[in-house]
Design goal:
Strand order of the largest sheet: 6-9-13-17-20-23-26
Number of strands: 28
Radius of gyration: 23 Å
Structural class: mainly beta
Number of helices: 1
Helix content: under 10%
Order of helices and strands: EEEEHEEEEEEEEEEEEEEEEEEEEEEEE
Largest sheet: 7 strands, parallel
Length: 257
């Protein structure tokens, strides 16, 4: 039987349940006890989280693993539309983070990393085996995130954004991802250095959407073993240097190869 913690009387070390619960059963020589779950007061180490839910929104409060203080570092994952389902800022310690197997639907931008002016770049964020469907922004939007890895993720049915956008970052990798039915460009690099786009499939980009793009002073980028099928331009580049293209398959589904 479960109940909600309605109050905590610190002077009496007393928890008040609402509605009230019967006395717990004892187990052998162990004292009577209740089990407390899903409350911020019981988070006692990095990596733990609790969930708040109502009829339309699920919000996860996460204590990041690389921080010591819960009060100064808690992050919020929220499925309400603006600004993003998962939003990390440089004030919420979005570093050294791995997200594996998360599905997001009906959001604006699904995953977003935002750097405030004057703060340091994010470092070593890995997103893998994630699925993004039916959004009206970008699937993954990451800027100033060194060592970002987006691996084996799927983005489909975006009505207003990029499939995957990584900007002003070093050592980024987008690999083994599938992007389909996107309003803008499938995979977009802007100002990245020593990065890779490898073994991805991109199809059905929108009216102002190319397949794979490297713009704004990208340098030392490997684009290899990708399959791009789009009615627009498969691969574009501008104001960038040392771009290596190898073994990509490009097909213009609008009528040409």
């Amino acid at each position: 039987i479960a109940s909600t913690v309605g109050d905590f009387i610190a002077s009496q070390h007393k928890i008040v349940f609402s509605p009230a619960l019967a006395n717990p059963l004892s187990e052998g020589s162990k004292p009577d006890a209740y089990l407390l779950v899903n409350h911020p007061m019981i988070l006692d180490q990095p990596g733990e989280y609790y969930v708040v839910a109502d009829s339309t929104t699920y919000r996860i409060y996460l204590w990041p693993r690389n921080t010591a203080s819960l009060a100064s570092s808690i992050s919020v994952l929220d499925d309400s539309k603006p600004p993003a389902a998962f939003l990390a800022t440089t004030t919420t310690s979005g570093n050294y983070l791995t997200i594996d197997g998360l599905t997001i639907r009906n959001a604006k931008t699904a995953f977003e990393w935002v750097k405030w002016s004057g703060s340091s770049n994010f470092k070593n964020v890995t997103l893998k085996n994630c699925t993004v469907q039916t959004i009206n922004g970008s699937g993954f939007y990451m800027q100033y995130c060194d060592g970002a890895v987006i691996d084996n993720c799927q983005v489909s049915k975006s009505s207003g954004g990029y499939g995957i956008m990584v900007g002003v970052s070093n050592d980024a990798i987008v690999r083994n991802c599938t992007i389909d039915t996107i309003e803008k460009t499938g995979i977009y690099y802007a100002g990245n250095h020593t990065s890779q786009i490898i073994k991805n499939r991109v199809g059905n980009t929108g009216t102002h959407g190319n397949g794979i793009t490297t713009y704004d002073q990208c340098a030392d980028i490997l684009i290899a073993n990708n399959i791009v099928t789009t009615p627009h331009v498969s691969i574009t580049m501008q104001n960038s240097a040392n771009l290596t293209y190898f073994n990509n398959i490009l097909y213009n589904s609008g009528g040409g190869a």
